[in-house]
């Protein structure tokens, strides 16, 4: 070991106790830390006081302390702070920047407004931001700071062929080298042929310099010259594949750096590459896919393979959460694939807390390399995400708890010059020791929570810290039953016992055999006048899952089956019922490639062609729940069922777009015949615009849970169906019916001379009928959408009518009394539980004329 003689003498002079032979202690040190011997001491330039703790473990330090101070009972000044600075925090943060990396530029003539996003100015702007913050040694404005408050500059150099070949083919190296002597046209052609990379004659040089800068930066950290570092380099690297330049990347800086560190330093074998660039680092993943020594974790927009780089080439789920590595590298690849744009602080911090950090702790890296693209930053046009500088600081802070703080940030993407410089500054401050700024949004959205959950389940196969563990069954194991099938067979049994419902045979090549168990019908299916067809997702099961595994705590788990309320209602009213369950997954090997939307559509057509159309039923009602909803609309679109389908109710979950349907002859048919209940937070309501009639009568539900949508709207939905059926039946009997499309006069004509009328649920109908026909001048206003039972409706109307009066208090009270009188008479009709009711015409006229006589004449002025 090369020890500064003066420093050693300084120790000898130290006025404490009896000083023992210090070289003995250092021999001991040398055996403890082989790295220090094999690679030369990185500490030579430092005072001895800094060397001791850096190379000694805590126990050997304590040992040395004991042996150095024999018997003397004096103050232990040798280990006092001024002589023994903290080994890591007393080091500075490194920074690599080389202006020559700007030479790589797009040779297409471009104006300021259409510059290529991978702009040479990117690195300059970050560098300048650090200068302005006063962290850069050679910058004039940094003079006021002490050396300890400044970053240590790390010189970039060109990476060697040998280093590049640790990750790339020699053909790739040669191809890049050749660009230095190409003509302008050749460079243009090559740029054109390559997947999102431009070239000029300086590209090869800059790529070597960028990669060499990254290597030197990491080396400075590993050697303890700096505690951590940021490399402001370009061109970026994480898209570069072993044999191909892609996505602005020529050489894979992060991957090559990792390999060089492993080769040079025995103490840097386990390396974490954390990639928070908004794009997936396809190159890095590929290079280490079968390598257990490098853990690659990436957070990126994925969008089912429709976001770069998957979009451009693979489209095979390479960036998806199921890609976990292969061979001995299996489990050392973690993808956190965002399904959409718009992720921000809450989502990134959530992913770090739930997946990134637990896995990183368990991996226990020797070195952390961050592929630090800043294109998920707020303001980046390509990334369309909202990560703030504060969140980048927090992520950096969390990573610094790993690998003894040995963290190296390498710039990747990031195209908004303001965003990248502010983000890089926030990370740098944290690297230097400042706490990260306060976060303002810490809540993850549903899509992110769902994504991270999938990642945790997938990674639970490889990491003990990932709970709950995922049980995967291939469906062939006779001891394992899908709960879905268990529940369906329970439901089928219940429906048989209660209503005699039996299985409806389904045999079709287009329809999966699993569906054979999923459809049941009442025995009167062929003969009943009314047939109700309900197709729905499996009922909700609320599982209380164990903390460690996915095993459910059965006594705390519940089956929520609101769909059965509808069956009970229909069957007890004598209607035929066909109930179909749509499995989210299919048992067995055919689950592969199962597309629930397509399967549901095929099934609906099959059921219509083979059963529904052939039944005697004059009136058919559709109910589509969850995954059943698109099937119902598809059926309307593909079969002419308008004459027999009298109405439908649909329940639409959050993640399902509304489906439009318009018929050439009757544009409003779907609207008038349907209620479409949506999840309360359904995106359709967020546009601020009214939902168009072609989507049916869209109604915002009370919950995002299908089960709650079904139960909360049960009364209104069944009343709607009941009213429609009554109207249809009345029409067949030749009775008068009235509906919203009629004018007040034609309603009056229709009703006059009838023994009774059927009143159909609709706000306008009631108002007009009461105003226009039965009692011509009463100014009732109805708001049926607020009320479920007719009784409540009339009560509401009566109360509103009285409140219309702006007269004195006495009159108001009198009106209220009158209203109550009207209400009391009406309520004796006992129609509270039926929405669609039949009034004896003269009976209601009696009631209302009684009341009208009691009301002052001026208050029954016409309102029409
Ligand atoms: Zn990117």
UniProtKB/TrEMBL annotation:
Record keywords, A-Z: Chromatin regulator, Hydrolase, Nucleus, Repressor, Transcription, Transcription regulation
UniProt-annotated location(s): Nucleus
Presence of the UniProt keyword Transmembrane helix in the record: no
EC number: 3.5.1.98
InterPro entries hit by this protein: Arb2-like_domain (IPR019154), HDACs (IPR000286), His_deacetylse_dom (IPR023801), His_deacetylse_dom_sf (IPR037138), Ureohydrolase_dom_sf (IPR023696)
EC category: hydrolase
Gene Ontology biological-process entries: epigenetic regulation of gene expression
Gene3D superfamilies recorded: Histone deacetylase domain
Domain Histone deacetylase residues, every copy: 116-431
Entry's Gene Ontology cellular component terms: histone deacetylase complex
UniProt similarity note: Belongs to the histone deacetylase family. HD type 2 subfamily.
Record protein name field: histone deacetylase
